[in-house]
Amino acid sequence: MLLNIGVSYKRAPLATLDALTLRDMPGFYNILKGVPGVIGAVVVQTCNRVDLFVEADEDIAVTEKILWNWALETKFKLHELRKLVEHRTGEKFLEYLVSLASGLESMLVGESQILGQLKSSLIEARGLAVSSPTLSKTFEMSLAAGTGIRDQTGIGKGTVSLGSAALKIAEGSLGNLDRVKILLLGTGQIGMVLMKAFKARGIRDVSVASRTRQRTESFSRTFGGKPADIKNVISQLGLFQLVVVATRANGYLLTKEIVAPQLKQDQNQKLMILDLSIPRNVSPDLEQLKGIVIKTIDDLRDITDQAVSTRRTLIKEAEPRVREAVEKISALLRREGAEPMVSDLYHRADKIRREELDKALSKLNLPQHQQEVLEKMSLSLVRKLLAQPVVNLREAAKKGDSKLLTVAGQIFEGE
Question: Out of 88, 201, 216, 262, which could bridge 227 as a Cys pair, Cβ 3.0 to 4.6 Å?
Answer without folding.
Answer: 216
